[in-house]
Structure formats: structure tokens, C-alpha cells
Task: structure prediction
Amino acid sequence: MRALPAGADGSPGSPGRRQGQGQGPLPGRVSTLLTGVCPGPPQCGAVHTYLFVDGLDLITRSHVGAAGAPPGLLLRPGGPLWPTDRARTVNVAALGRDGSDAPEVEIRVRLRGRNVVWSGLMYPGVDGGAIEEVRFDLRQYAAELERGYACWGAGSI
Result:
């Protein structure tokens, strides 16, 4: 049995903001980002990116028919997921699982101090409560985008 990240089981300390709580993530609590990729046919219609937040597939949980944009687009240095002080809205889905046009799965990405904040989210956590906002340690986040791009991004736009 795989261990869940701290708080991912819905216990106190869960890193995401839950619907109805009225507060942001608890001070000092950060989420972990992990990127992955589907190689495309025959598994899916095209190569696409997975974004796992604390072990949960953000894109599929946000919209079951959506698949991530190509890794060369999402993960590239200076690309849409790289944070800046000014928040920006990013559509992380580019196609449906069958290769057709995808429904939008938008997140707001911004840099706040040494944290990267994703807001505008609405996907179910492990406990079924809505995750609306998560934050990541900038070093872990940047290292994961760099790792994902090095593994799958170059030449995949």
C-alpha cells in the first residue's frame, strides 16, 4: 500500500484550501508537484503532460475528458507554468484523451515570495472536498519543471 503525503487523507494539515473553509493553505504547508507524460498512440491520441499535485492527477480530476498540453509547451523554461510576480491564467489541457479538442482546465499561476501558488482550481481531493488553491516550494517546483522538460519536453511542442 502506497503512503499518502502528509494531510492528503483529509486530516488536519492538508496542503490545499478546501471549499467552505474560507482560508488559504495553512502556514508552512506546501504541496509537491510531479510531472509525467503519456507517450501518445496507442495509449492516447497524442503525447500529453500529467501534473500530479500531492499524488493526484490535477487535469483528469478537474475534467475527466481532458488531457494535458504537450510537455514542450507546458514545461519549457519561461513557459506558462513558470511563475512570475504577476499572476497569469494557464490552460493546462490541450486535447481530449482521444486527441480531440479539450475542455479548458485553467489555473492561475503566480510567485509569492518563495512559493508558487496555483489558484482557481476546483478538483476533488482524496477526501472528496474541493481543492481550490495549492502552493509549492519554488525550489522543488522549478526543479520538477526542469526535470520534466529535460526528460520529455525538448522537441515535443
About this structure: Residues 1-27 have pLDDT under 50 and may be disordered. The two ends are 36 Å apart (CA to CA). Residues 29-153 form one domain. The first strand starts at residue 17 and ends at 18.
